[in-house]
Amino acid sequence: MDSKDQRLPLTVITGYLGAGKTTLVNHMLRHADGRRIMVLVNDFGDIAVDADLIESQEGDTLTLANGCICCSMGGDLFYALSDALDRQPRPDHLLIEASGVADPTRISEIARAEPELRLDGTIALLDALGFPALVDDAQIGSSLVRQIAAADLIVVSKSDLQAPDALSELKAQVAALAPTARQIEASFGRVPLEVLLGSLSPAEVDEIPQGCAHYGHSGHDHANHDHAEDHEDLYSRWSLARDCIFGQQELADVLKDLPAGLLRLKGFVKLDGCWALVQAVGGRVEIESLPRVPDHIKHTTLVAIGLKGQMDTVELNRLFSR
């Protein structure tokens, strides 16, 4: 989290029952790389089973049981969010694992009402095996459609168990429901944290080659990560640290033309007279003016991650060449 932007980044994780939300959250916690991640788990039943499955440090999980936070527990959610904001030290990131029947749009609206929070994105988990039948169900289908339509990023779980033709048909159906969202496939929640979270950590900044654009391996040592091979096979990275200045409208125009294979872009851009914090996930782009940035940021500094073979790094270099 940017040391000048003291708002707590919040990511909403949604998906129908059994889609793999808890598996994804546990993967994120195991590979937090020093980030303090707090998880707010919403169980729909009386007993908080999902919260018991979270592999978190004691005190880092908040539980809301016996209801869906998007419809009947607004007050309890505000209380839980206040608890997270009052923690000392404050977490670096807050995850809300919504119940399988929750409407993530309503959760996001509640979060936006808190000025000390910044909505980082909505991630929807989709079960590649169960989705085709569930989306056509008269009672369940509408919930799935709402969850997908609200997402910035859609993680298709159990894709390795689905037939290739059926998987292609499913992804086309999902693209029609959420045309601006990005889709990625994952097994057991194995998705790089830089795809899922938008907070640019100092460690990520330190890895960017200064004065040039770079793509390929990020330079991070994956020797102790069991997911390294999976990630390097599926994703490519691009980064830039260059002494270039953009006009505000010029930057907005550039961000409208980001290549389709890009999953997430984040970083600091030098403008005329100030700085901008840039966040792009799926089809959603945010530009925030900052009076200054952390001391270790000297130039326009951006990192991006996308699907290997689909993220056009040549186009990224062209867009940000100044």
UniProtKB/TrEMBL annotation:
The protein's matches in InterPro entries, at most eight in alphabetical order, are given as: CobW-likC_sf, CobW-like_C, CobW/HypB/UreG_nucleotide-bd, P-loop_NTPase, Zinc-reg_GTPase_activator
Q: Which GO MF terms are attached to this record?
A: hydrolase activity; nucleotide binding
Concerning its family, UniProt says:
Belongs to the SIMIBI class G3E GTPase family. ZNG1 subfamily.
- The name this protein goes by in its record: GTP-binding protein
Catalytic activity reads: GTP + H2O = GDP + phosphate + H(+)
Give me the segments passing through the membrane.
none
Instruction: Name all CobW C-terminal domain ranges.
Output: 235-320
Q: Which CDD domains match?
A: CobW-like
Q: Enumerate the UniProt keywords alphabetically.
A: Chaperone, Hydrolase, Nucleotide-binding
GO cellular component annotations of the record: cytoplasm
Keyword set includes Oxidoreductase: no
Q: Which Pfam families match?
A: cobW, CobW_C
Determine the domain of life of the protein's source: Bacteria
**SUPFAM superfamilies from the entry?**
Hypothetical protein YjiA, C-terminal domain, P-loop containing nucleoside triphosphate hydrolases
**UniProt function note:** Zinc chaperone that directly transfers zinc cofactor to target proteins, thereby activating them. Zinc is transferred from the CXCC motif in the GTPase domain to the zinc binding site in target proteins in a process requiring GTP hydrolysis.
